[in-house]
Specification:
This is Aminotransferase class I/classII domain-containing protein. It comes from Roseiconus nitratireducens. The chain has 370 residues and is of the alpha/beta class. Helices cover 38% and strands 15% of the residues. 43% of the residues are buried.
Length: 370
């Protein structure tokens, strides 16, 4: 095959910086951490779990569809997630009666944004969603695909962000925050102001990182301003490619109605067993010493000043007064609170068990620690 001409070859302008991160076994993109506990849960599901008759129990999940026994599988999954997260997430399930199992949180977020655009245009409104600078990139991507305007705001000036909202706009926000991997301390005040100043606007709450934090904290998800709750086990359980997630909503989403039947029973079972076996926050507490150690190693190698984030996969810190090209590349958030954020997943995986990281050689890793 003839090699493509140079004019059609697209080079990555950040390749050198990504290579620098790769040599330190970290990344800018946040990746899921597959832990020994992750693989143990998956093995037990495929093997029928302890006390069951081998793989017969697993195969039985899929048999006799005409009995409709599979229809309610997601209901038990949601009940387990509610119990698993109850020391962190506070809301009354009866006020969010519409539940949908989804492929991680992204499927639900995409459908919610699309449905919002459809509803707004039916009312002859111009749909607009709001986010904070540095938030989850999917909010922008899904809104762009639906032809919906996105307005980004400086999180440091969150009261102005509320004032700038239209009465029927939506605000998409993650807690703990995808911006820096920290629990956002002004979340409750933001909700109160939004309810006071824009009572018809909706907060769409992304709880993807719940279960990734070892310290105690609470999220008021039952506040009247919250219209829907998205959650995922991709990061807490290391099951990104098994697509385990869901949505709690105050209103129906017809586009997700078919998920009652068209759902992944294997993924739901993996998620259920993981939550039954490991409490929310248990593994982040267990692996916190590794997160702290790896952060120190990365600081030495990359000349950064990072601290372990609340979210176990991340390290974050304030940039120096004169940003290096690497710091500039890793910056997230708004002016006044911008943070350098690094994903520690590759290096943490190797520190937990080198067998999990065949692409990271032990010799290379030893050089990183020097």
């Amino acid at each position: 095959m003839e090699a493509p001409s140079e004019e059609f070859m697209v080079s990555d302008p950040h390749q050198e910086l990504n290579d620098q991160l790769s040599r330190a076994s970290v990344s800018k993109i946040v990746y899921s951490l597959v832990m020994p506990e992750t693989e143990s849960v998956i093995d037990s599901v495929f093997d029928g779990e302890p006390g069951c008759q081998g793989r017969e129990a697993f195969h039985d999940l899929f048999r006799e569809a005409w009995t409709q026994k599979q229809d309610a599988v997601h209901e038990s999954f949601f009940a387990v997630w509610k119990q698993w997260s109850e020391l962190i997430v506070d809301f009354d399930a009866a006020e969010f009666p519409f539940v949908y199992p989804t492929g991680g949180a992204s499927e639900a977020i995409r459908e919610a944004i699309h449905a919002y655009g459809v509803d707004a245009r039916r009312r002859a409104d111009v749909p607009k969603i709001h986010v904070f600078d540095g938030e989850y990139e999917g909010f922008h991507a899904y809104a762009d695909a639906a032809g919906i305007e996105v307005q980004s705001h400086n999180r440091r000036d969150w009261p102005r962000a509320v004032e700038s909202m239209g009465n029927r706009d939506q605000f998409y926000l993650s807690q703990p925050s995808a911006i820096d991997g920290m629990v956002w301390e002004n979340y409750e005040a933001f909700l109160g102001l939004m309810q006071d100043r824009r009572p018809e606007a909706q907060l769409m709450l992304d709880l993807t990182y719940v279960g990734c934090v070892g310290k105690e904290f609470r999220v008021n998800a039952g506040h009247p301003a919250v219209a829907a709750i998205f959650f995922s086990l991709s990061k807490p359980a290391g099951v990104y490619y098994h697509r385990v997630g869901g949505m709690w909503s105050r209103r129906a989403y017809p586009g997700l109605f078919g998920n009652k039947w068209f759902k992944n029973l294997t993924s739901l079972r993996i998620g259920t067993v993981f939550m039954q076996r490991h409490a929310a926050g248990e593994l982040p507490r267990k692996y916190r010493p590794i997160q702290e150690r790896v952060t120190r190693e990365v600081n030495r190698q990359l000349d950064l000043s990072l601290e372990p984030a609340d979210v176990m996969l991340l390290a974050t810190g304030r940039p120096s007064s004169k940003h290096s090209p690497l710091q500039q590349f890793l910056l997230r958030g708004s002016e006044g609170e911008r943070r350098v954020r690094v994903c520690l997943t590759p290096r943490m995986a190797h520190a937990i068990d080198p067998a999990l990281t065949p692409t990271v050689s032990a010799r290379a890793y030893e050089r990183l620690d020097q």
